[in-house]
Write a structure and sequence with these properties.
With 293 residues, the chain is α/β, with parallel strands linked by helices. It has 7 helices and 13 strands. The strands form 2 sheets. Strands 4-5-6-7-9-8-10 form a 7-stranded mixed β-sheet, covered by helices on one side. Helix 1 packs parallel to helix 3 and helix 2 packs parallel to helix 3.
Length: 293
């Protein structure tokens, strides 16, 4: 009996060592790496999508569709894991997404399911080791905010940074990526932050990309398109509240794609069956005219 118990203990220890070594290998093999260069690059195609969580089969299919698009850049709008503290969930995500960040710049947005910051920071090579940052691509200024708690205001340091960054880039077209949406038809309530709405209205913000509410939704407020792109694999959410600024809402798994033709920026949303479910185009000139009204 003692021999059997010893053998069992030895087997458990060996299996545990193998698991730890395999995890370490997979971590270093799959971890996101980014050569961050904030200066403008004239790229052709940007994919924006998010909220995959534990919808593994859907996530794999959407990631494969995105890979086939051959994007130059991907912005992931948050919620990579079902459990913020689960190392395995992060590992699964990195394995599924690796082919994307091996072939494109990949910029993550921190979601509420990444609230355990040390794991998020461990798996992602964040620009300047910061969870909020900005850079220029395709002639547009992109801002990524660390804004994942719908009930908490943007902390003062980040808000001041945002104000300074917007002012420094006031003559450019601007896109913002943040996890919680400022406009939504539910399941969850919108992010109640009038400071952000006033700032986005003051400057040339074309698009605000978010996630959190699992669906595709586009709202139009004072000339700015507010896009919820949260259809990467997580379970879809129904409409539960009125949104007077809603232009379209689709409960489908999807991704969005941003391209440019001369001075016009074009966004289209593509569902999991390859159907284009929404398109919108805008330019710096049209944004400036809207702000002047």
């Amino acid at each position: 009996m003692k021999n059997i118990l010893k053998k069992t203990v030895y087997i458990i220890i060996i299996l545990l060592i193998i698991f730890i070594l395999l995890s370490i290998f997979l971590y270093f093999f799959t971890r996101h790496h980014l050569d961050f260069q904030p200066e403008n690059k004239d790229i052709d195609k940007i994919i924006i999508y998010g909220d995959v969580r534990s919808g593994y089969l859907t996530h794999i299919k959407i990631a494969d569709m995105i890979y086939q698009e051959k994007p130059d850049m991907v912005i992931f709008t948050g919620d990579i894991a079902s459990n913020s503290r689960n190392y395995i969930h992060y590992m699964q995500h990195t394995i599924f997404e690796k082919k994307l960040w091996d072939n494109a710049e990949y910029y993550p947005v921190r979601g509420n399911h990444e609230s355990t910051y040390w794991l998020y920071d461990a798996f992602f090579d964040l620009p300047n080791d910061m969870s909020y940052y900005s850079f220029d691509r395709m002639g547009m200024h992109f801002i990524v905010l660390d804004c994942w708690n719908v009930y908490a205001p943007l902390e003062k340091t980040q808000l001041e940074w945002l104000k300074n960054d917007l002012e420094a880039n006031k003559n450019k077209p601007i896109s913002v990526a943040m996890h919680v949406p400022l406009f939504t038809s539910g399941k969850y309530e919108p992010y109640n932050n009038p400071d952000l709405l006033e700032l986005f209205d003051k400057y040339n913000v074309m698009f605000v990309f978010s996630a959190h509410v699992h669906s595709y939704e586009r709202s139009l407020y004072k000339g700015t398109n507010y896009i919820v792109t949260a259809g990467g694999g997580a379970p879809l959410y129904p409409v539960t509240r009125d949104n007077p600024y809603r232009q379209i809402r689709k409960n489908v798994h999807h991704y969005t794609m941003l391209t440019k033709d001369n001075d016009t920026y074009m966004l289209k949303a593509v569902d999991i069956d390859g159907n284009i479910i929404d398109t919108v185009s805008t330019s710096l000139e049209s944004i400036v005219k809207n702000k002047e009204k």
